Amino acid sequence: MARSEGMAVRPTVARFALLGTAAPKLTEGLLLAERIHAALVSLSDGAPVFTGCDAQKRPLSGHGHAHILCESCPSEPEQEQITHVTVYARMGFGLQEQAALQSLSRVWGPAGSLSLALQGLGQAEDFRSSPLLARSRTWISRTPFLSTRHPKVTRAGVAKRDESGLQIGSAEHDLLRLLVEAGLPRPVLVERVAGTQLGEREVLWESFLCRRSEGGGKRAACGKASGFRVQFPEEVQGPVAVGYGAHFGMGGFVPCARFLIASDKEIYERGCDNFSSNCEIPRIGY
Description:
It is globular, with a radius of gyration of 19 Å. It is 16% helix and 26% strand. By secondary structure, it is of the alpha+beta class. The protein has two domains: 1-127, Elongation Factor Tu (Ef-tu), domain 3, CATH 2.40.30; 134-286, no CATH class.
């Protein structure tokens, strides 16, 4: 029996190609995501899946509303410019929201007008060409992770630690908490990385625009960006994006095999000028 329109599975992914010569770099993805978000809110007449709030303007729970994720060309992982934008919402897009996505064709980027071409609506597994929507056991940061909590210390200034030895409220501790809250299995391995590969250079997290120009939601704890390589006990389905600004592309991960980069310590030992020594953290296994 054919499903009626009301019974049909809602698409959770809309994938766009970014057209034109004024495409911003991935480091400016947060700004582009904000402008796409504003356009979708307007085109959908304030649909909750895009605003993240209900009719009474109360924040939705569970992070099921739209994430706007920028990426560089999947076939050229070292591309600096943004080539694609994926809008993902676990709660799915109804007919009104699908119409808004289909109407989205132009936004104003940091360097001028940008055209967007909708490549399709569907489920994450329908877009296997996108690293963000792949399945993998090992993932690595592609955009900076920004913790929403502060490291905890005693009155004597000694770090407060959990049963595994992690400082409570540290970036690692908050990352693990948020991944589990997102319904993912607790990683068996966490290792800091200092940045990602863009073009022919290694770009440190400090080079990314990391603070939203407007809007509410959870704030970053201290504005310090970090990145990680994480391994789960089993394959997980992307996208994986957590932390401050995750709905605007921050805290995004991709399968590790596609974007290999040295650890913090390796970059430090090579004498990277912009290396921040307070980011040097030993590899942590669980």
